[in-house]
Amino acid sequence: MIPILILAIEDDSDREFMITVYVELYPTMKSTAYQIINDHHATEDIVHDAIAKLIEKLDTIRVLERPALVSYISRTVRNTAINYYNKQMSDKKALFYGLGPDESDIQADDWETPEEVFNIKADYEELGLAIRRLSEKERDILFMKYNQQLSDQEISDIMGIKKDSVREYLTRARRKAKQYITEGGAENEWK
Amino acid sequence: MNGNSLIWTRSQCMEAFDELLIKIALSSFAELEGREFLKENEQLKKEPEFQLPPDHEKMIRNAIKKHDRKKNFVLVRKATSKIITRVAVVFLTLAIGFGTTMTVSAEFRRIIYNLILTQTERYTQVEINREYTEFVDSDAYIRPGYTGSTFAPTVMPTGYEVKSVEDLDSIFTVEYSNGKNDINFTQIKISTNGGIRVDTEDAQRVETIMIGDSEALLVVKESDIGVNSKVVWRIGDYLLSLLSYENNPDELIVIAQNIKLMK
Fold first, then answer.
1. pLDDT by residue (tens digit) across B10-53?
2. Cross-chain Cβ contact A147/B27 below 8 Å
């Protein structure tokens, strides 16, 4: 199946890029999918589906630096796996993120708080560490919205929630992200 | 936020700033987790359940080669048809005594016209750098039900064997491999509107050479997956081509010069 997907790429350079991505990052892609669905056979299908999505985003991903590219690819696989999981489990009324209220407040405290105090000139890496403090669900939805530029409908499909709820989840995740970014800062000129 | 206003309020500015800050933070986090994924990827490569089968990449590349060949054949059916039509127009124009300028004047087309229309006495010096083996795999060239002519190479560089055969009636391809490189020999019956597209754009080398009594086109071109070499020529109603995924045009010329009519 993979060769057929890759064959669909007209541009030689894009095609070579996707082969390299697939061959080089296959372990991470498979592992990412496996962590969510725990089924080696199904992970193959998920990786294939993710490759199809990545091919559609070639213009976006080709300009990314290597670490950001790996993150994007891994998150595409993750979204695909979550979507697959939710579809498989829909009859059991069990979604990947759970059906109950957002537990982000509890999970957020599990993350180590950056020691350094945030301010407007904060180190670039520290901003990333603030995102790490978010719950998986909050982080995922922010990535879907900002990095992967998915529509609310696409996000709702992946997460297994109503489209109307996406905005609510996003607002909550943004608020929490802002809180973690600003928490460390004693003086916030922009607040 | 009022998109029509050129002046933002303080709260609008703050809102935009928040958004930007979150984007920067996400970008930073993507780099952090990407570096972690890369480390993890190196570890996972050692675990059998997360490895690709060893020959998977080769399988993909072989599939691409095959796909490219098929795509080229399809694309050129129309192109060849147009060329033949234009050739007919040129003949007609000359016959009635009017000078004309062909609008299809690219180098590629000129050479293709020569392939179709002319035979000259030019010959090309060929150096033989590799050992060759007399080679006729008659089984590969048995084509039940096919009534046309079939050509086959009688020598191949030592180590090459038939890897696959693809018979589409008017287009017949035999793929040879030595385990490291593949050489494809294709023959197309052009009277059935078949043809072959030769991509000469940005080629390292484009020459006309002689294969027997026929003028041939030699192309060496770099692509993203490496250099490939092609020789294309015509015998009667057949266009023949040799394609190799190495920079070995001299080898292709030797093979081409030793291709014989099987029936």
1. 888 888 888 888 999 999 999 999 999 999 999 998 888 888 87
2. yes
B63 and A CB contact within 8 Å: yes
Cβ A177 vs Cβ B25: under 8 Å: yes
Interface predicted TM-score (ipTM) of this complex, two decimals: 0.77
Per-residue pLDDT, A166: 92
Distance CA B263, CA B251 (A): 25
Does A4-93 carry CATH code 1.10.1740?
Answer: yes
Q: How far is B223 from chain A (nearest CA, A)?
A: 8
- Domain chopping of chain A, boundaries: 4-93, 98-189
A153 burial (CB, 10 Å; 0-12 / 13-18 / 19+) is: exposed
The answer, for A65 touching chain B at a CB cutoff of 8 Å, is yes
For residue B28, give the chain A residue with the closest CA: A128
pLDDT along chain A (191 residues), means of 10: 69 86 92 91 88 88 92 95 85 63 43 39 78 92 93 91 90 89 51 34
Cα within 13 Å of Cα(B89), Cβ side: 11
Residue B56 pLDDT > 50: yes
Give this prediction's pTM. Answer: 0.52
Domain spanning A98-189: CATH 1.10.10.10 = yes
Residues of B in contact with A37 (CB under 8 A): none
DSSP E strand stretches across chain B: 132-134, 151-153, 155-157, 161-167, 171-177, 182-189, 205-211, 214-223, 226-235, 238-244, 259-261
- Enumerate residues 6+ apart whose C-beta is below 8 A from A162: A156
Candidate from A30, A67, A74 with C-beta closest to B31: A67
